[in-house]
Design goal:
This protein is α+β, with helices and mostly antiparallel strands. The chain has two domains: 50 residues; 50 residues, Roll (SH3 type barrels). It is built from two helices and five strands. The chain has a five-stranded antiparallel sheet. The protein starts with a helix and ends in a 5-residue tail after the last helix.
């Protein structure tokens, strides 16, 4: 009778131990993938809100240019490129060109 009680108690502990690797994987994904992505999105949104006329920028599609005009009513930005002026949504501006080239090189 004593053996049955011990066996049932250990069975509950065993199921918790089998779930521990899955919980560890979820924690690792959060700290190495989800959290840095949220931080990156927050920085990008702050940058898009503070774009000024004359800034050299890169769009998310890779077009390099200089901000010629900002229209806050319809949330668009006109970028002057080598091919002429192109109108983009504010959210399509990816980064400031000077920040890209001034960033320290990763080794």
């Amino acid at each position: 009778m004593n053996f049955t009680v011990i066996f049932l108690q250990e069975g509950g502990l065993g199921s918790l131990a089998s779930m521990l690797p899955f919980l560890a994987i979820i924690v690792v994904f959060y700290f190495f993938m989800i959290r840095p992505q949220m931080s990156r999105q927050k920085k990008e949104k702050a940058f898009q809100a503070e774009i000024k006329k004359g800034a050299k920028v890169v769009t998310s599609s890779g077009i390099h240019g200089k901000v010629a005009e900002i229209n806050n009513t319809d949330n668009t930005i006109t970028v002057e490129t080598g091919a002429g002026k192109i109108k983009f949504e504010r959210s399509a501006i990816s980064m400031e060109l000077s920040k890209k080239y001034l960033a320290p090189a990763k080794k």
